[in-house]
């Protein structure tokens, strides 16, 4: 790059750097997707700070001329002469449960929003926070201000209302990010979703348990809960693939049924056999089963769980678990919303967390 001649008496320094980059794109006849020099290279030839260059790049991002990819660089989004004189679209976010994150209480919707914010900052996209999601609000920001073309709806149960708004505003994309899976087969084309892959996460844990144990049992409650059904389906797939026939799936009627369990012997009778490992569908079941007295001969199975809360069983280090990172889930939604959304439904597979030392089942012995 040639030296940038900054005029102290002219308009702001970051604006001059932005003008130089526009001329650079024109003079080098750069095509869409071409990579520009790095922030440090630009700062060096301009004789200014990296912070000032970042501000210039952010302005070009808002104008739709450039875009940034984390750890990859700055790229041409549109040729300067083809950019219309309007604000580059923002991202709308509706979170009726609030925007303040509380790590101790495990505020899942707020954690999702935290991830969305992080993605939008990296992609230099302003965020419009909706306090209510109404036709008037969507019309104001999308049609009158021309400010946004995508709205992320965080963890709401008002799904029919989202579909209704999508039908009324076909040019606006509605992206739902949630921890409850939805069926999108019959929704408008401008409605999509980002969810946790409960079946995939349970599948990975079940495969792991079948590597270290001869058999395992899956325990959940509330047969009507869609998430638990997906987790059971993931376990069943792993069992089928390994050809095992000794892995019972126990679906209890309620959380109260879990609390009424008295000991491991009773649990094994409910399974219909002794198993080497127990995969708990949530942390509440795990906590209760850990309190049960061991079998009469001292036997205890390996325990594993599906950690669906931000704060739940992180302190239990000896338990293998599938953990949902809702900040990461929100981040994925934000990244998809900032660019083209290629899929109707995106599933984020939760992380498989392994302790440094897995304790093995206690060997049978006379006591």
Topology summary:
Layout: H1 13-27, H2 39-46, H3 50-62, E1 66-69, E2 73-76, E3 90-94, H4 108-122, E4 127-130, H5 135-144, E5 148-154, H6 159-168, E6 173-178, E7 191-196, H7 198-212, E8 216-221, H8 226-242, E9 249-252, H9 255-259, H10 264-271, E10 277-280, H11 283-291, E11 302-307, E12 321-323, H12 326-338, E13 345-348, E14 351-353
Helix pairs in contact: 1-3, 2-3, 4-12, 7-8
Structural overview:
The protein is an alpha/beta fold. It has helices at 13-27, 39-46, 50-62, 108-122, 135-144, 159-168, 198-212, 226-242, 255-259, 264-271, 283-291, 326-338, and strands spanning 66-69, 73-76, 90-94, 127-130, 148-154, 173-178, 191-196, 216-221, 249-252, 277-280, 302-307, 321-323, 345-348, 351-353. The strands form three sheets. It has a six-stranded parallel beta sheet with strand order 4-3-5-6-7-13, sandwiched between helices. A six-stranded mixed beta sheet has the order 9-8-10-11-12-14, sandwiched between helices. Helix 4 crosses helix 12. It is elongated, with a radius of gyration of 26 Å. Mean pLDDT is 82; it is low at 357-367.
């Amino acid at each position: 790059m040639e030296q940038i001649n900054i005029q102290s008496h002219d308009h702001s320094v970051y604006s001059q750097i932005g003008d130089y980059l526009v001329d650079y794109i024109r003079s080098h006849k750069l095509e869409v997707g071409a990579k520009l020099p790095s922030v440090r290279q630009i700062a060096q030839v301009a004789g200014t700070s990296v912070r000032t260059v970042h501000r210039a790049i952010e302005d070009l991002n808002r104008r739709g001329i450039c875009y940034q990819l984390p750890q990859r660089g700055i790229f041409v989004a549109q040729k300067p002469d083809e950019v219309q004189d309007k604000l580059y679209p923002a991202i709308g976010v509706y979170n009726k449960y609030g925007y303040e994150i509380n790590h101790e209480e495990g505020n899942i919707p707020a954690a999702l929003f935290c991830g969305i914010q992080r993605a939008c900052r990296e992609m230099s996209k302003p965020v419009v926070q909706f306090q209510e999601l109404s036709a008037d609000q969507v019309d104001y920001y999308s049609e009158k201000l021309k400010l946004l073309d995508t709205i992320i709806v965080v963890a709401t149960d008002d799904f029919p209302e989202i579909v209704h708004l999508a039908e009324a505003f076909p040019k606006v994309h509605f992206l739902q990010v949630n921890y409850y899976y939805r069926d999108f087969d019959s929704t408008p084309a401008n409605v999509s979703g980002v969810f946790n892959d409960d079946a995939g996460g349970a599948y990975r844990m079940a495969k792991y348990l079948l590597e270290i144990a001869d058999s395992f049992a899956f325990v959940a409650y509330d047969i009507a809960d869609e998430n638990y059904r997906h987790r059971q389906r993931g376990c069943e797939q792993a069992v089928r693939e390994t050809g095992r026939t000794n892995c019972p799936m126990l679906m209890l009627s309620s959380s109260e049924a879990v609390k009424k369990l008295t000991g491991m012997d009773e649990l094994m009778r409910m399974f219909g056999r002794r198993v080497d490992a127990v995969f708990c569908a949530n942390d509440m079941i795990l906590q209760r089963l850990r309190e049960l007295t061991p079998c009469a001969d001292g036997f205890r199975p390996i325990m594993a769980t599906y950690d669906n809360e931000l704060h739940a069983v992180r302190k239990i280090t000896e338990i293998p678990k599938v953990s949902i990172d809702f900040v990461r889930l929100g981040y994925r939604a934000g990244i998809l919303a900032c660019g083209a959304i290629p899929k109707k439904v995106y599933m984020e597979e939760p992380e498989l967390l392994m302790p440094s030392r897995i304790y093995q089942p206690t060997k049978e012995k006379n006591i």
